[in-house]
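Bug: token stream looks shifted between consecutive jobs. Job 1:
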Amino acid sequence: MSIISETGNKYYIYITPEEGAISWNINTYEQNQCGFVAYFGKILQAVEKNLTSGGWTFYVTMMCMDELPSYGEKVIVLIYGDELCRIPKYANKVGAIFKCYGTNQALGCNPITQPSYLNLMTTVQYIRNYLIRLPRILNHQSNKFFNKIKSILGQDNQKMAPIYDIPLGYYNSQDMPIKNFDERSFDVYFAGSSSHTQYPLWSLKYWLRTPKTISRENMLDNLKKFKQKYPEFNIESSVTSAFGAKGASDAATQYCEKMMNTKICLAPRGTSLETYRFYEAIKYGCIVITEALPSRWFYDGSPAIQVEDWRQLEEVLTQLLQNKTLLNETHEKSLHWWETKCSESVVGKYIAENLNSM
């Protein structure tokens, strides 16, 4: 039985066609639930409060791009796991799509002016992903073209759903009181995997490595050098076996406690340029050092420090750690950016405003 809100809106989690649509009461969830449940549940609570009309059906899916259980102008889709930045096939069958990672993949480097093995493999991955996306791009553009022709001829046409970018949000983040910045124990912190997939010996990725693996190995190598050169700073790093390895309840709590106790968090790229760690850190007011960020509305004004190469890490860390005023100012900017750009209430209002204008 579906769960219908007082405004007549329906909410479903739709992971795979085999599992089907699972009714979701967005107002109830366990505090220690990770993944999209807490973040998107709170977002949809804010959507519910800000909508001026009812009768909407919301599907929240990781990356179901081909089909949905139902369609219509009041069917809204939130997609949070498609790192390939694809356009859903059903874009002409629903009212609107809100998508993490967007539909335009960012390269994040210039392999000509900044030659390196990482940038080379990043470019190779970019081209590969683009070729995967290309059939959907062509299909989407052809649908838009024929819709215009039908409109000129006065024929009925299926409108293409607008696709809006939304933040990735957190995977592991519990509601904790913000700890005083000067009292935080860890000057620099990183926890995560260097590669979430164990490739077989016959795989090219095993021998060539992926941009994620190359980047994180570079970061860890430079962090190790910094730790040896500056033993007076408290550096904490924990390399896990895979993404989600810290997702169990106790481990997630420990991860959040360490993040809350951190001044500077390192957020190297994952499979894509965008990572959960970026949001998990900045929500707690950490100063984030990361790589190139895509051009998206919610990254505008981000106080995160972006490096072109992890060999810059020593320079960036010494400038920060030797300037207490700069540390505290950037900490406050991080908290402000979260509250005004990517908090659940802000994203929920953004979604509702776009739906209200339809």
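Job 2, same session, no restart:
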Amino acid sequence: MKIGILCHHTYGGSGAIAAELGKALASKGHIIHFFSQAAPFRLNTYSRNIHYHEVEVQHYPLFECPLYSLALASKVADVAYYEQFDIVHAHYAIPHALSAMLARQILEDKCSGQQCFRLVTTLHGTDITVVGADRGMQDVVRLAINKSDGVTAVSEYLKEETVRMFSPKKEVKVIPNFVDTSLFHRVPRPDILEQLGLGDEKILIHISNFRPVKCISDIIRVFYSLSQRMEATLLLVGDGPDRSEAEVLARKLGIECRVRFLGKLDDIVPLLSISDLMLMPSNVESFGLAALEAMACGVPVVATKAGGFPEFIVSGEHGFLLAPGDVEGMTEKAMFLLSDQERWSRVSEACVRQAKRYETALLVEQYETFYMKLLRET
């Protein structure tokens, strides 16, 4: 198949999944064309089956907002016309599915009414729970869903929210996020410990785009309480609007020397390999890919009973799930895991076994089946 993939290039789960999906499909012989403003951050490979198209946005004095959606539609239509795509897969309803819809209209006009590709839209969360929650955008999101040929969501939670909020005409199929356990697995990295100046202390980690929904200040507070009772270091990977507030809070609590803000990093396996616990206190999470990748590396997770976490994290078996905002409870569960090596090892091994149920090859096969079903319906 020839498949166009529309995605965000920025740090986050949707861009990671889009890039990993495209790479996996390319390795199976499919021809993949990526479209975004910059190369997706996980698109760190070379393949004769992978092509990348940068979408350049022209800025005109007459328009206050950049015309990315229109530029994307034009680029997709142009490439699809010559490459004859079978599928265009939009990751996010807004703006990608809408741009793909417009691209298809351009092609249908150019090709005398002939439909040139089937449109698949994957909902990742923000397009539903944030953009879709805006009353002024609800009809636009609903249109993007209903005009897609096939719609998937990354969790049962997100599917239920989509049905509740939009009553879509299209059936929403759940295909969860996935992890390549041949890449994400724990390996000894004494060199990383040395580079970071770390010793025998416990290492906690959090990876995200530091948006308000991630509750970064709760991570700092949990770590503060924990650090009063054991030697520990906190690694914060990523960046975003709440980083400055977190830095201020760490200084206020006097733990700034034990909290490392590492910024955005593509290769997180070395850091996960030295970590003992992941903290994910999000208010809501459509899936929680970072937690799954941590589990694949044998890192137990203390997270919230929010969104998609309960679908792959069994509390007490792979870590613990608590109510959002329960800083005291998270601290106690973190202590419980980190204070007993034998207990930690059992949970770590269970995490690895659970992650293997979400192996890339298994889920990519589901996407292939989904694509083929849509093409047979043409």
